[in-house]
Design goal:
There is one protein chain. This protein is mainly alpha-helical. Among the domains are: about 70 residues, no CATH class; about 140 residues, no CATH class. Strands 1-3-2 form a three-stranded mixed sheet, with helices on one face. The longest helix is centred in the last third of the chain and has 28 residues.
C-alpha cells in the first residue's frame, strides 16, 4: 500500500494534470512538473515546477502553461504546420509565434477562463525577458509583436503591460505594412490552413517574402506533362475496335459473322472449282470434249478386284 503524500502541492498537480488532459482532449497525454524549461511534444507536456509553498505566481504560471499547451495540442495540426512553414529563420520565427497565438486565441474564444491563465503565462515570460524596459523599436522582437497583435485582434482582450509595450513599439510598422492582411485574422482563426496562408502573406508584407520558399499550394496545381491524359477526340481506334464498331452498327454477332464469312468462302471456292472444270471441258474451238479414257485397272493381277474401302 502506497503511503499518502504529505506534499500539499500534489493534489493541485493531479487536478491540473487531469484538467490539462481533458482540455487537450487526450487522456493519454503525459504530464510532468520540472525545474527544466517547459515543453510540449506529441505525447507529453512538461509544466513548471510547483513547490510545497504553492505561491500565487507558481500556481498562475503552471495553470497558464498547462492551458497554452493543452490548446496547442488540441487545435494544432503538425502536418499542416509543416506544409506551410517558411524556409528562412526570421520567417519561421514569425510563423511559429503567430501559430501559437492562434491556438491560444481559439481556446480563449471557446473557453474564456483560459484567457486569464494565459495572461499570467505571457506576463511571466515578458518579465523574464525584460520586455517592460525595452524602449527602442529595433530591440522589440518582431515575431513576439506579431503574435501579440494576432491575439489582440482575435480576442479583443488587453495584453499584459510588458507585452503591450513590445506591441506598441512595432504596432505602426506592422499596421502600415500588413494591416489589410491582418484585418482578416478573425475570419480564418479556426482554419489552420487558411490561417497559415494568411501568416505567410503577413510575412511577405513585412518584407521577408524571400524567406518563404516555395508556395505549397502552387505545387498542387502543377501536373507533369506525362501525366496528362489525351482528349477522346484525339484517340484513334485500333483494328479490333473498328471491327467491333462495324459489328455493332450492323447488329451482327461477331461469331455469326465469322461463320457466315466461312460459308461464303466455301461457296466461292466451289463456284471457282466448277468454273475451272467447265473451262477444262471446253476446247479452244468450242466443241464438246472427247470421252475420257478408261481408268487403269486397280489390280494388274485380277481385273475383277473391287476396292472394299478407299
Amino acid at each position: 500500500m502506497n503511503k499518502p503524500s504529505d506534499n500539499p502541492a500534489d493534489p493541485f498537480k493531479k487536478a491540473l494534470g487531469d484538467a490539462t488532459r481533458a482540455m487537450a482532449n487526450d487522456a493519454e497525454l503525459a504530464i510532468s512538473y520540472s525545474v527544466d524549461p517547459p515543453g510540449l511534444s506529441n505525447d507529453a507536456a512538461r509544466l513548471p515546477q510547483v513547490t510545497r509553498r504553492m505561491t500565487r505566481a507558481e500556481v498562475l504560471l503552471a495553470r497558464g502553461t498547462a492551458d497554452a499547451y493543452a490548446l496547442r495540442h488540441r487545435f494544432h495540426n503538425a502536418e499542416t504546420h509543416t506544409r506551410y512553414r517558411p524556409a528562412g529563420l526570421d520567417a519561421q520565427a514569425l510563423y511559429e509565434a503567430m501559430e501559437t497565438a492562434r491556438c491560444e486565441a481559439v481556446g480563449a474564444r471557446a473557453m474564456p477562463g483560459t484567457a486569464g491563465n494565459i495572461d499570467a503565462k505571457i506576463a511571466a515570460e515578458c518579465a523574464r525577458r525584460g520586455y517592460a524596459r525595452v524602449t527602442d523599436p529595433a530591440d522589440a522582437p518582431l515575431a513576439e509583436a506579431a503574435a501579440f497583435l494576432v491575439r489582440e485582434l482575435a480576442t479583443g482582450r488587453a495584453l499584459p503591460e510588458a507585452a503591450e509595450n513590445i506591441l506598441n513599439l512595432r504596432r505602426s510598422e506592422m499596421q502600415d505594412l500588413a494591416g489589410d492582411t491582418l484585418g482578416d485574422v478573425g475570419d480564418v482563426l479556426a482554419d489552420q490552413a487558411a490561417f497559415s496562408r494568411l501568416a505567410r502573406q503577413v510575412i511577405r508584407d513585412l518584407g521577408y517574402g524571400d524567406q518563404l520558399g516555395d508556395d505549397p499550394d502552387a505545387e498542387d496545381d502543377e501536373r507533369p506533362e506525362d501525366e496528362e491524359q489525351p482528349d477522346d477526340e484525339d484517340e484513334q481506334p485500333g483494328p479490333d475496335e473498328d471491327s467491333e464498331a462495324d459489328d455493332q452498327e450492323t447488329g451482327e454477332d461477331p461469331e455469326e459473322a465469322q461463320s457466315t464469312d466461312s460459308q461464303q468462302a466455301e461457296v466461292s471456292l466451289e463456284d471457282s472449282d466448277e468454273a475451272d472444270m467447265g473451262e477444262e471441258m471446253e476446247t479452244d474451238d468450242g466443241q464438246p470434249p472427247l470421252d475420257p479414257p478408261e481408268p487403269p485397272p486397280i489390280s494388274e493381277a485380277d481385273p475383277d478386284y473391287i476396292v472394299f474401302e478407299t
